[in-house]
Design a protein that fits this description.
heterodimer; A: mainly beta; 4-stranded antiparallel β-sheet; B: mainly beta; about 0% helix; about 45% strand
């Protein structure tokens, strides 16, 4: 069955960078997009971007443009999110999620990774 | 990008019908994909899709969950609401190559 397993919680200082990983299994990694969605404490879902694991192409949300990098390693079926110049507002649970081609829904989600930004 | 608007909360009695709206959907998309999806999220858990492509229900989702759309507003309907349905619900759609979520609705089962 499909699984998306994310890396563990992180605590970072303002201005630092963080990388979150998402290990996919149970399906052909290159056949589905991987999205990154975050949720600040007590807040709603915020889409951050997607990566096409087949081509490596990405698209990110305007709000995080310039600070986010999404990559993948097809040999280990893992996607990565790197967020730089962290601010306290970046404190959130970060989820990876799978979708088919653009326009389709998110059918599987990772368990979430808590990133805390604090001095 | 654009905004999807949901009511912050909806209250319903057990056994009654709950309706959660999502307004602001674009009627046209340059990708041709404008069908909203709905996600249920319970405290401390990852979201789960309950409706996709506006009206389709994934396997394992109870039949009491249904979706519809009229104009630029989508509606998630939960018939015969149960206590276990108390959760946050989010609508989601694509806008060109990007994704947008509604602000979320807390369903309260009184």
């Amino acid at each position: 069955q499909v699984h998306l397993v994310q890396s563990g919680a992180e605590v970072k200082k303002p201005g630092a960078s963080v990388q979150v990983s998402c290990k996919a299994s149970g399906y052909t990694f290159t056949d589905y997009y991987i999205h990154w969605v975050r949720q600040a404490p007590g807040q709603g879902l915020e889409w951050m971007g997607w990566i096409n694991p087949n081509s490596g192409g990405t698209r990110d949300a305007q709000k995080v443009q310039g600070r986010v990098t999404m990559t993948r390693d097809t040999s280990i079926t893992t996607a990565y999110l790197e967020l730089t110049r962290l601010e306290s507002d970046d404190t959130a649970v970060y989820y990876c999620a799978r979708s088919g081609t653009a326009g389709t829904h998110f059918d599987y989600w990772g368990q979430g990774t808590l990133v805390t930004v604090s001095s | 990008s654009y905004d999807l608007t949901q009511p912050p909360s909806v209250s319903v009695s057990p056994g009654q019908t709950a309706r959660i709206t999502c307004s602001g959907l674009k009627l046209e998309s340059n990708l041709g994909y404008k069908f909203p999806s709905w996600y249920q999220q319970k405290p401390g858990q990852s979201p789960v899709v309950v409706i996709y492509e506006e009206t389709k229900r994934p396997s394992g989702i109870p039949e009491r969950f249904s979706g519809s759309k009229s104009g630029n507003t989508a509606t998630l309907t939960i018939s015969g609401t149960q206590a276990m349905d108390e959760a946050d619900y989010y609508c989601q759609a694509w806008d060109g190559g990007t994704v947008v979520f509604g602000g979320g609705t807390k369903l309260i089962v009184l």
